[in-house]
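Appendix B, Record 12. Input sequence as logged:
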Amino acid sequence: MIELYKIRTFSEKISDTIDFIRQNWRALLKYLGCVILPASIVLAFFFNHFWNGYMSFVSDVERGTSGDFSDGISFMLNYVAMVVIYMVTFVFLNAMFYAMVRVYYHRENGLQGVVYDELRSPFKLCLKRMATLIGLGFLLGIVVIVALVVVGALFGTINAALVVLYVLLCGAALFAVAFPLMLMAPIYMLEDNISFFDALAKAMRLGFKTWGGIFGMAIVLGLLISVLQMVTSGPWYVLFIMKTIFTLSNDLDGSFTNSFIFTLITYLASILQCMGMLISTIFTEVGMNIQYGHAAELVDGMGTQEKIEHFEDL
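Logged structural output:
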């Protein structure tokens, strides 16, 4: 059993991240796979149609012809469908993951032998919270972007040089804030009776005090995810390059890349790529959970508080 609230060295955070996945891979595969597989099948369908539309556009440009207006509409609809399906999948996938994390830390045997009935109640709670997190986060992001653009426009009326300085400062500020924000999901999803804005404030407080650790975890997890996505995305990129070459050589009609077999193989490769992309999000969430436990214990002593409360209950 991996303790959540515990001060860890950097190497311990990495090893605990890997150990959590290694110890619980059967349960993770069973329940998260129920979300990842069907979502990947649907995502791959629109992903393939999106890139087919792109290749059709490239082919039209090479031949000096203009495509139908309906092709452009279809191209945009496939893109919108991909974004919407990915966001819905992201909500359900993370809700199931955090439901499993909640059960893991409140069940004697962790996730060993866990059944869906034990996950149903925390899943509903986490689904509601994750939808709130994404929804309010999206709206707050729009408000911040609009405010930054308005302020930048005001600077532009004064001096163009101020706009350049303003953009640089905004870029540096967003970079600094991005890493503490990675702690917001575990805080909001795992702590009871905490509001969205309280979770945001706590993420900023814990995040800036452990900024270096979050940055280091993000780098290492990013490297691991890159290797995974290289493996799962490699087949699709090879097929895409093949089709690009045939398209640019004006040999698309009647070629193998336009056959049913090639289309089917590309679709299967797209499913594999989408699965790799969704699995990558779980690696990130596991690592950030471990980082959150370290930060919460280091700054607030949450593990010590829990032990005192448990002792008083006894």
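The CA atoms of residues 188 and 199 lie 5 Å apart.
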